[in-house]
Amino acid sequence: MHKLPTGRELVQVLDFRKLPKVLLHEHLDGGVRPATVIDLAKSCGYNGLPTSDAGQLADWFHRRAQRGNLPEYLEEFAHTTGVMQECEGLERIAYEFLEDMAADGVVYAEVRFAPVFHTQRGLTMDEVVQAVIAGLQRGQQMFHVAWGLIICAMRDRDDSEVMAELAIRWRDEGVVGFDLAGGDLDFRLKNI
User: Fold this and answer.
1) What are the beta bridge partners of residue 154?
2) Distance (Å, rounded) from C-alpha 147 to C-alpha 124?
3) Reported confidence tier of residue 64, pLDDT bands at 50, 70, 90
4) Which domains does the chain have, with CATH numbers?
5) What Cα–Cα distance (Å) separates residue 164 from each residue in 84, 148, 156, 170, 179?
6) Is the pLDDT of residue 61 over 60?
7) Which of 91, 100, 107 minimizes the C-alpha distance to 147?
8) In which band, very low, low, confident or very high, does the pLDDT at 192 lie, cut at 50, 70 and 90?
């Protein structure tokens, strides 16, 4: 009689990176490569990083992400969004995102972000979305990973309608959804 393999035995036999996967909730500004953050910080003059060593920065982000609550986790996005203020950087990050997805065996990825955080240096939200879509399109051609883009509005801001209209404007170019993001517990408590 044939014995069925245990979960541990399956893990040893299967290479999970090669199995096709779908990723439905990934933050564009939450998965930027540390080396890319450092490169873009240098090119755009962002001085807020705790280190300029990619390995140390990766460890720092990982430790900070383990603090146990969403608001503290989201604090670290200030560094990634701080370097995502130019079209070239936004396109690069979107392209690298699909390269990383392909390396993990992802065949379809839905990526989300809040364009409002990428306008500090004068880009319009439409320019921000256009740059991200350009990177995703280029990445799809190169790595054959299908994608959908979700535009996020922030619960603590009053421009949700503007973000929804932005999502609608770009729906024929790859925007597949609109989302409210940010810590909802604090938001609910403040609005009771």
Assistant:
1) 181
2) 23
3) confident
4) 11-190 (3.20.20.140)
5) 21, 16, 15, 10, 8
6) yes
7) 107
8) very low
